[in-house]
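User: I've been trying to design a sequence by hand for this structure and keep getting stuck. Would you show me what you'd pick, starting by listing the structure so we're on the same page?

Assistant: Good idea, let's start from the same input. This is the structure you sent:
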């Protein structure tokens, strides 16, 4: 298996773990690996009146994972979130939030709520 395939599989595992973690915290997962023409969202969840867009990152070091989402990637995720909202307008009244779940080697996930605010 080449490095790209290995990273892809590691990402899938991290997303599955993140979904389980969020469910345990009371979130309802409504989308996984949501693909749009403008970008992809790892997980989409609802908790109370919040629509939560979650980016999942797995790295050897938790600090590296937490800082692995540059502004350009944030912008793509925001555009994908707007695409989701245009496709599912019944979520438009929900507060939109961007979270990050980061995994380091062998550690529990770190969940950062409101990791960034939309520039749109």
């Amino acid at each position: 298996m080449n490095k790209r395939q290995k990273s892809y599989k590691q990402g899938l595992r991290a997303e599955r773990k993140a979904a389980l973690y969020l469910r345990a915290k009371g979130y309802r997962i409504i989308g996984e690996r949501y693909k749009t023409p403008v970008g992809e969202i790892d997980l989409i969840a609802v908790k109370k009146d919040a629509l939560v867009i979650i980016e999942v990152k797995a790295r050897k070091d938790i600090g590296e994972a937490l800082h692995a989402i540059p502004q350009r990637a944030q912008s793509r995720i925001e555009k994908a979130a707007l695409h989701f909202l245009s496709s599912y307008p019944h979520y438009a009244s929900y507060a939109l939030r961007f979270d990050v779940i980061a995994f380091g080697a062998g550690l529990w996930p770190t969940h950062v709520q409101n990791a960034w605010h939309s520039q749109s």
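That's my pick for every position. To get oriented when you compare it with your attempt: The helical segments are 3-24, 62-66, 71-87. The chain has three helices and five strands.
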